[in-house]
Write a structure and sequence with these properties.
There is one protein chain. The protein has helices at 2-24, 31-59, 65-92, 127-144, 146-149, 155-178, 189-197, 201-204, 213-231, 247-267, 274-302, 307-321, 330-355, 363-381, 404-436, 443-448, 450-455; strands at 115-117, 124-126, 392-393, 398-399. By secondary structure, it is an all-alpha fold. A two-stranded antiparallel sheet has the order 1-2. Strands 3-4 form a two-stranded antiparallel sheet.
Amino acid sequence: MKSYVKLLALLVVATLAAPAFADAAPPVPNKGDTAWMIVATLLVVMMAAPGLGLFYGGMVRAKNMLSVLMQTLVIFCLLGVLWAIYGYSVAFTEGNAFFGGLSKAFLAGVTPDTTASTFSKGVTIPEYIYVAFQLTFAAITPALIVGGIAERAKFSAVLAFMVLWFTFSYLPIAHMVWYWPGPDAYTSAAAADKANATAGFLFQKGAIDFAGGTVVHINAGIAGLVGAIMIGKRVGFGRETMAPHSLTMTMIGGSLLWVGWFGFNVGSNLEANGAAALAFVTTLLATCAATVAWTFVEWTLKGKPSMLGAVSGAIAGLVVITPACGFVGPMGAIVMGFVAGALCYWGVNGLKRMTGVDDSLDVFGVHCIGGIAGALLTGVFASPKLGGTGVYDYVANKVGDYDMGAQLIAQCWGVGTSLVWSAVVSVIAFKLVDLVIGLRVDNDAEREGLDVTSHGETAYHS
C-alpha cells in the first residue's frame, strides 16, 4: 500500500512540475513568422537592387545612369559583407549606450538554432533571418546618401566614405535606437530598470522608431546634405539644364521602392500578426495621402502636376510613416501623409532654393525633412486618444498610460541626436576621404559623364 501511495505522490509532483519545465523550455520560432520575415527581407533587397538605383538613376543625366546603378549596388553588397563581419555585433549586442560589443563579430555563435526576440514575450524568430533583415537596412541606408553627391563623386571616394559612415554613424545610431534585451527581460520594475540600463541611449530616453525614421532617414538625409556642401556643386549647376533623363525609370524605381517598403515597415514588426497588418495599412495610406498632397500643392503653385512630383510625394509619404507605422492609426497615417507631401515639396523647392546647395536628388528635402516630421508626429499620433496604439508596458503586460508631452521630448532627443551625430561623422569622414583620395572627379571627366570615365560603359547606345 505504501508503494502505491509513494507512486501516486511522485505522479502528483511530476504533474505539478510539468508546467515549470515547459515554461523553462526555449520558445520555438513560429513557421509563419519565419516565412514572413524571409519575404520581408527579400522585399527590402529589391528596394536596393534595382529599386533605389532606378529611382535615382532616372533622375540623373543619361551619361551618369550606370554610375548611380553601380554605386547603389556595390555599396549595398560591400556593407552587407561588413555587416556580417562586425556590423551586426556592434549594433545588436550589449556594450555601452552608444556601441555594442564584438561578441558576435564574424557572426560568432549565430547558428540555425539561435533565436532573436520579437516584441512579444515568449516569441522568437531564427537569428539568421534577423541578421539578414537588419543587414538590408544597414546596407541600403548609406546608399541613400548617393543622391546628395550624384554625378560628380569618385567611385573610390564614395566607397571609402560609406565604410566610415556605416561604421561610425549607422551602427551606433542603430544601437542607440533599437538595441534592448528583449521583452522577456521585463518581468518586474526592478528587472526593467536593470534591462533598460543595458539598452541603447535613445531607447533609454524613450524614443520610439518603428522602422527607421531616425536610424535611416534623418541619419542618411543630413549626411547627404553635408556631402553636397563639401563636394560642391556640379559643373554648370544653375546655368545648364540638368533635367532627369528618364522619368519612366524613376517611376519604375519609385514603384519598386513602395512595394519593397512593405517589407521594410511591416517586417520591422518581426511577427505576422495584427500589428503587422496595422503597419501595412498605415504605410499604404500615408503614401497615398502624400502623393495626393504633393500633386495638388504643385498643381496649385506651378500650374501643372508632374510625374516627378507625384513619385517624390510617394517617397515622402513612405519616409514620414516609417517611424510611426506600427504606432499610429489609419487616420493618423493619412494626416501624416498630407503633412509630408506639402512639407517635403517645400523642402525640395523653397528650402533648396534658399540654401543654394546642389543636393542632386533631394536627399535632404525628402529623407531628412520627412524623417524629422515623421519622428515628431509619431509622438503625437501614437496617442490612443488619436487612434494610436500607445506604448506597451512590458512589466504590466498592457498598454501604458500615454503622456504626449513626455513622448515628444523623447522624440526630440531622437531627432537631435541623429542630426548632430550623423552630421559630425559625415564632416569628418568626407574630409578624411578628400585628403586621402579626393572627393570628386576632374571637370573634364564630369562633363563627359561618369559612366564612361569611371566605369568604361554607357547605359545607352545611339
